[in-house]
Amino acid sequence: MSLRIPVKSLVLSWRDGRSKEKVTARSPSVILQTGSVILQTGSVILQTAIACKFLTLFTAPLIAGISMSTPPIRFSQFNASLNRSAEGQLVSDLSTPDNAQAKAVAETIQRVNPDVLLINEFDYVAANPLQPVQLFQQNYLALSQNGATPVEYPYAYIAPSNTGIASGFDLNNNGVAVTTPGTPGYGDDAYGFGNFPGQFGMLVLSKYPID
To answer: Are strands 36-41 and 202-206 parallel, antiparallel or unpaired?
Structure first.
């Protein structure tokens, strides 16, 4: 999944816990992709792998029919670490509003309040993909966390990923191709590292419709 946005100007900032960087560009082409953010202006391309904890893009629209007085649209990415070691555990953890980690994640989102948010490391549940999404929204984002204003995202997109999908090959070259989830070495031999299918998935939340 990727999203291209024509903009007049952009400020790209990211924080990895050790440093904070900012880049400003005029008339850039912005591409949001799963796994990276690419900022292209002229012949210069800045690409940052999404390894930081929270990344925010502020865009000033340059689209026909949109006044320049239109408020900026805020795009953010959050490595939330809402992945679990066992399949189904995330649903269990989000079923009550008491999970400390989920509360901290929700508070950060509420305070930054992006319009479109990519959450990395959110387990995909094949049996009911939207179940953990809805639980996170109603039990955490919709409730004030430490005085922060609740935030609502009417639109969500979550899809299967290659994480935790058995490849059938000995990808770590240890002489054994592990194909049974939960078996030691399974994640190393999966197409994308994961101890079960869907671990470390990705979720998009948006205040605007998603095509």
So the answer is: unpaired
| 45 DSSP β-pair partners | 40
Rounded Cα gap, residues 59 and 92, in angstroms: 37
CA distance 158 to 189: 24
Global confidence as pTM: 0.69
Query: How buried is 44 (Cβ within 10 angstroms: 0-12 exposed, 13-18 middle, 19+ buried)?
Result: exposed
Report the alpha-carbon distance of residue 61 to residue 75 in Å, rounded: 12
pLDDT digits (tens, 9 = 90+) for 146-190: 999 999 999 999 999 999 999 999 999 999 999 999 899 999 999
| Beta-carbon contacts of residue 10 (< 8 Å; ≥ 6 apart) | 24, 25, 28, 30, 39, 57, 58, 59, 60
SS (H, E, C) 159-203: CCCCECCECCCCCCCCCCCCCCCCCCCHHHHECECCCCCCCCCEE
Q: Which residues contact 127 (CB under 8 A, 6 or more apart)?
A: none
Dist. CA 206–CA 125, nearest whole Å: 20
